[in-house]
């Protein structure tokens, strides 16, 4: 986004966006964080990435449920050979879907607490706590999926 420097009578310099900025530049300016690579930026970015992962899973799940209605034999084939495979567990569920679900849920609770005015002064520490709990639950969930309940998925 291009900006013009305007000086008022008190000699205060301010940046004002120009009217001829393109829509894409405006959107990029809107999502541009104030301080890159801060805990708040990383939390913001991870929350959006995990949301996209979960929406992708939602569409895949809606596809397989719709497939069960349209063609039950094809549904059984897809579930048996795609979703129940070890490749799906080791390559999709454990490294991507499970941590995305855990982090997105915990970070959502963290954001809700901030909206209620709880813990606002400790945002950075609560973000790191969210990451630690996510890591612990990721490892515990991976162990459970691989060794304790391999037939459930």
How would you characterize the largest beta sheet?
A: 2 strands, antiparallel
**Assembly level:** single chain
Unreliable runs: 4-17
Which structural category fits the helices and strands? Answer: mainly alpha
Secondary-structure element order, N to C: EEHHHHH
Radius of gyration, whole Å: 22 Å
- Please tell me the overall pLDDT: 81
The largest beta-sheet arranges its strands as 1-2
Task: Tell me the number of structural domains.
Answer: 2
Count of DSSP strands: 2
CATH class descriptor of the largest domain: Mainly Alpha
CATH superfamily of the largest domain: Fumarate reductase/succinate dehydrogenase, transmembrane subunit
Roughly what fraction of the amino acids lie in strands? 5-15%
Q: Helical amount among residues, as a percent range?
A: over 70%
CATH topology of the largest domain: 3 helical TM bundles of succinate and fumarate reductases
Kindly report how far apart the N and C termini lie. 48 Å
| Named CATH architecture of the largest domain | Up-down Bundle
Broad shape: globular
Work out the helix count: 5
